[in-house]
C-alpha cells in the first residue's frame, strides 16, 4: 500500500510541475511550489527525484517516451532504414508542436538537451547508446556523433518559440527530414 501511495505522490508531483511550467518560466517554478501544488510534503521532490532537474527529466521521459517507444522498438538498422527511422522520430515532434502542452514538453526537452543538463535519462530512447546500432555501417563513435547532431538539430527546430499551433510548416518539415536523413546516411568518415 505504501508503494502505491508513493507512486501516487510521484505522479501528482509530475502533474503539478507540468501545470506550473505551462504558466510560469522554468526558472521561476520552485521545488516548494511543485510540492505545494501537488499537496505533498515540502521534501517530496527531493525524496522522489533528487532535484528539480531530475523531476523535469522524469516528466519528459514519462510524457515523451511512449510516443516513440513502439515505432522505435521495431526500427531496424542500416542506411536503407534511416528514412523510416527519421519519420518515426519526427512524426511525434510535429504532433507535439501543434499542442500547447506538447510545445511545453518540446521547450523543456530543448532546454535540457541543448543546454547539456546532467539529467540521468532512464529510458532507452533517451540515451545515445541506443541509437548507434541503427547505423551499423559506421563506427560506433561516428554513429553516436551523427545521432547527437541530428537530435540537436531536431530538438532545436521543434523547441523554437517560432513553432505555433500548427506545428512546423510542411516545407520546413520536409527540409529538416531530408537534411537529417542525408546526414545520417552520408558516406562514412574517419572515427
Could you describe the 3D structure shown?
By secondary structure, the protein is mainly alpha-helical. The chain folds into 2 domains: 1-50, Orthogonal Bundle (Arc Repressor Mutant, subunit A), CATH 1.10.10; 63-185. Helices cover 64% and strands 0% of the residues. The protein has helices spanning 2-23, 31-38, 44-48, 52-73, 82-97, 100-114, 140-158, 170-185. Helix 5 runs antiparallel to helix 8 (170-185). The longest helix is centred in the first third of the chain and has 22 residues, at 2-23. This is TetR family transcriptional regulator. GO terms for molecular function: DNA-binding transcription factor activity; transcription cis-regulatory region binding. It holds the Pfam family TetR_N. Residues 30-49 bind DNA. Residues 7-67 form the HTH tetR-type domain.
Q: What's the helix and strand layout?
A:
Elements: H1 2-23, H2 31-38, H3 44-48, H4 52-73, H5 82-97, H6 100-114, H7 140-158, H8 170-185
Helix pairs in contact: 1-2, 1-4, 4-5, 4-6, 5-6, 5-8, 6-7, 7-8
Radius of gyration: 18 Å
Number of helices: 8
Shape: globular
Question: Span between N and C termini?
Answer: 52 Å
Count the strands? Answer: 0
Helices and strands: which structural class? Answer: mainly alpha
| Overall pLDDT score | 86
H-E string: HHHHHHHH
Could you give a short account of the major beta sheet? none
Poorly predicted tracts of residues = none
DNA-binding region: 30-49
GO molecular function, one term: transcription cis-regulatory region binding
Protein name: TetR family transcriptional regulator
Pfam family, one: TetR_N
Amino acid at each position: 500500500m505504501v508503494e502505491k501511495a508513493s507512486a501516487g505522490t510521484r505522479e501528482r508531483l509530475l502533474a503539478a510541475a507540468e501545470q506550473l511550467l505551462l504558466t510560469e518560466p522554468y526558472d521561476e517554478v520552485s521545488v516548494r511550489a511543485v510540492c505545494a501544488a501537488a499537496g505533498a510534503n515540502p521534501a517530496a521532490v527531493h525524496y522522489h527525484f533528487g532535484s528539480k532537474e531530475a523531476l523535469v527529466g522524469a516528466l519528459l521521459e514519462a510524457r515523451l517516451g511512449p510516443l516513440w517507444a513502439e515505432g522505435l522498438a521495431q526500427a531496424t538498422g542500416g542506411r536503407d532504414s534511416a528514412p523510416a527511422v527519421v519519420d518515426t522520430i519526427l512524426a511525434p515532434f510535429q504532433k507535439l508542436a501543434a499542442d500547447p502542452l506538447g510545445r511545453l514538453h518540446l521547450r523543456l526537452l530543448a532546454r535540457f538537451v541543448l543546454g547539456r543538463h546532467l539529467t540521468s535519462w532512464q529510458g532507452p530512447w533517451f540515451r545515445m547508446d541506443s541509437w548507434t546500432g541503427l547505423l551499423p555501417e559506421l563506427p560506433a563513435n561516428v554513429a553516436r556523433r551523427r545521432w547527437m547532431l541530428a537530435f540537436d538539430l531536431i530538438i532545436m527546430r521543434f523547441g523554437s518559440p517560432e513553432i505555433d499551433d500548427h506545428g512546423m510548416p510542411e516545407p520546413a518539415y520536409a527540409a529538416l527530414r531530408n537534411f537529417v536523413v542525408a546526414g545520417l546516411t552520408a558516406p562514412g568518415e574517419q572515427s
